[in-house]
Amino acid sequence: MKQLIDAINSFQKLDDETEQAIMKYFVIEKFKKDEFIIQEGKICKKVYFIKTGTVRRFCFENETEVTKWIYTDNQFITSLSSFFEQKPSFENFQACEDTVLYSLSYSDEQILLEYPLFSKFHIKQLRLYLSKINEFHHLFSAMNAQQKYFFLLNSFPQIIIKAN
Question: Which of 69, 102, 130, 150 is most buried as measured by Cβ atoms within 10 A of its Cβ?
């Protein structure tokens, strides 16, 4: 649980009360290689933090499976629109190897958001992720395959390291 607390503290310094609440509501889950964590067509009821492992996010475009991203240790994952709006997901998240996650249910997240420091963390994290997504889409769409590879190598080396 220390990994999770450290990750949250890197966004927002927590007090003991908030740390204890986080440790109460996040639970450990294990997924085997190729097991689905989040499935298209189902409502995503949890947000996850990767303790160890690798998770692939993908969807189907014109009946072709398209990988959208690879997530590794110390990253938060969820199907954003499905989780936040509690509607069916249009994407899949699948373990690429045996993976250990900390999960937080939608209802327990609502409880944690009552803690001011967790709420501050949540806002800071969302702002950073939205900024990174915006930047990524702007840069990545104009790159060729070689440029994309070097961008990933420089910006997200953990993805390349895990893939080899």
Answer: 102
